[in-house]
Design a protein that fits this description.
Blueprint (H helix, E strand, L loop, with lengths): L12 E4 L2 E5 L10 E4 L2 H9 L6 H18 L5 H13 L8 H12 L4 H24 L7 E4 L6 H11 L5 E5 L6 H12 L4 E4 L4 H6 L5 E5 L2 E2 L5 E4 L2 H10 L4 E5 L15 E2 L2 H4 E2 L2 E2 L9 E2 L1 E4 L6 E4 L3
Parallel strand pairs: 4-5, 4-7, 5-6, 7-10, 10-16
Antiparallel strand pairs: 1-2, 2-3, 8-9, 9-15, 11-14, 12-13
C-alpha cells in the first residue's frame, strides 16, 4: 500500500549488513533505542526479559535463523546450531508458541531450500498480511466509534486508524494501563497519540465503569496464542474485559496469530512471571517488604466471548 504510515512497533526488528537490531520496548516512550543481537541466546534472553514482544518476538525468531544461516552456511555444525536455537526459542516464554515458525524453518532446511530467500519471502508476506489484518479491522468500525484496547498489538491499531481515515471515519481510543509493564500507557497510547489519534488512558480497574457510562463502542485486542477451537491467550486482564463486553453487549474483536498446537485454551500453559515485577515500580518497592505477589502474565478468553477473530492468514 502506498504512503501508509507505520508505527516503529509495527516492524520492531531490523537486519542491516548481517547485523540484527531489536527495538527495546521497555525504554519507550522515553527513548527509541535498538539492541544488537549476536546469537540465539541473546534473542531468547530479550524475549524472556520483555525487551520485545508480540510481533517483535516473531520477527526475532525468523531473523535469528537468517543470522545463523548466514554465519554457518555450508558448515557441518549448522544442523546442530539450528536445533539448539529451536529449543532455546521455543522455551523462552511458555505461553507463546513459536513452534509453527521453528517447524517451518526446520522443514525448509531439511528439504534443502535456501533459508535466506525462504525467510525473506515469508517476512514480506507477513508484512502484507498484517496490513490486511488492519484493513479488515477498519471495516468493523464505524465513524465516531470509541475503541477500548488492552496491552499492545505492535502497530496494528494506528494502521487500523489510518485505514479508517481513508474511509472518512473518525475513531478514538481508550487504553488500559496494562499493569505491571504498562504496555498500554507506554506503548499503545504513545503510538496512537504519535499517529494523531485521540487517546484516553484508564487504569485496568476502570473498564466496567467506562462501559457502564456508555463510553465504549467496540473492544479490539490482540492474542499471543490462538487455540484451534478459537480460544485465545492474551495479556492478563483480557478475559475480564471480554466478560464485561459481553455483559454490556459491546463487540469484542481479536487480532489473532496463526493457530498453535493447542486444541483449546485449557491446553495453553500460562506463564507465571517473577512476583518482583508486580511488587516494584522500577527500582522502588511499592508493597511492604516480605509481602508475596502472584503474576500470571496471560489469561484465557473463551471463543464464546469473541465477536470476531481477525486472523493472520499465513
Amino acid at each position: 500500500m502506498e504512503n501508509l504510515k507505520f508505527s516503529p512497533l509495527f516492524w520492531p526488528v531490523k537486519f542491516k549488513k548481517d547485523t540484527l537490531y531489536v527495538l527495546d520496548e521497555t525504554l519507550l516512550p522515553q527513548r527509541l533505542e535498538y539492541l544488537k543481537v549476536n546469537n540465539y541466546r541473546d534473542a531468547s534472553r530479550l524475549i524472556r526479559n520483555m525487551k520485545t514482544r508480540a510481533v517483535g518476538q516473531v520477527l526475532l525468531v525468523l531473523y535469528i535463523f537468517m543470522l545463523i544461516f548466514k554465519r554457518n552456511k555450508g558448515k557441518k555444525s549448522l544442523a546442530g546450531i539450528l536445533s539448539r536455537a529451536t529449543d532455546s526459542l521455543n522455551n523462552s516464554r511458555p505461553t507463546l508458541s513459536f513452534r509453527y515458525l521453528t517447524d517451518m524453518v526446520t522443514a525448509w532446511f531439511r528439504q534443502g531450500y535456501d533459508l535466506d530467500k525462504r525467510i525473506l519471502d515469508f517476512l514480506d508476506m507477513l508484512k502484507n498480511k498484517r496490513i490486511e489484518q488492519a484493513k479488515k479491522a477498519s471495516l468493523l468500525l464505524k465513524n465516531k466509534d470509541i475503541i477500548l484496547t488492552h496491552c499492545n498489538v505492535s502497530g496494528l491499531l494506528p494502521l487500523t486508524g489510518e485505514f479508517c481515515r481513508r474511509q472518512r471515519k473518525d475513531i478514538s481510543f481508550f487504553v488500559t494501563e496494562t499493569r505491571p509493564y504498562l504496555q498500554g500507557s507506554r506503548l499503545t497510547a504513545w503510538e496512537l497519540h504519535s499517529s494523531g489519534f485521540k487517546v484516553t488512558v484508564i487504569s485496568d480497574n476502570m473498564v466496567a465503569q467506562v462501559m457502564k457510562e456508555g463510553l465504549i463502542d467496540k473492544v479490539v485486542v490482540g492474542a499471543d496464542n490462538l487455540a484451534r477451537n478459537g480460544d485465545i491467550a492474551n495479556k492478563i486482564g483480557t478475559y475480564q474485559i471480554a466478560l464485561l463486553a459481553d455483559h454490556f453487549n459491546i463487540p469484542f474483536y481479536v487480532f489473532c496469530p496463526p493457530p498453535s498446537p493447542a486444541d483449546t485454551g485449557e491446553d495453553i500453559k500460562i506463564e507465571i512471571r517473577p512476583d518482583k515485577e508486580l511488587l516494584r515500580f522500577g527500582s522502588k518497592l511499592i508493597a511492604p517488604a516480605g509481602v508475596k505477589g502472584y503474576y500470571p502474565a496471560f489469561d484465557i478468553t473463551p471463543r464464546e466471548l469473541i465477536s470476531k477473530h481477525i486472523n493472520l492468514d499465513v
